[in-house]
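Course assignment 3, question 2. Fill in each field.
Student: A.L.
Task: Predict the tertiary structure for the chain below.
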Amino acid sequence: MPATSNPSIKGVGWNPADYGHFLTRRARGLPFWFSLGCPGTRAYADAVERTLEVTRAGQAMIEAAPYLDLVMPATLSVLAFRREGWHQADYDVWSQKLLVDGTGLVLPTAIDGEPALRLCIVNPEPTRKI
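Answer field:
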């Protein structure tokens, strides 16, 4: 169907408006299907399970540290926590340092109006370096 579909216009030939970039859509499902197809569904499921295991281990590490407070239990691969005595500037500096060092992206956030850190595990093979 042409981009201009006014019924009063008949017999219009080739129209460049019918081929505009705004009429195309990215194949959003393609990266997901490649993720499943290349390594296989078993490997993909194992990676997801490993990510959840890493998240649970991260929660245990936060709970074991006397200077950290778990804000909420892990939700899938998201951890939210606070460090005792830290203010927004402290969170910002630490987050920026991790980013510059290439360690990870740990974003400061606010939960119930108080600053905190939010960690989303998306790599099934992180280290305990942080």
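Instructor remarks: The chain has a mean pLDDT of 85. The first helix runs from residue 29 to 37.
Grade: pending
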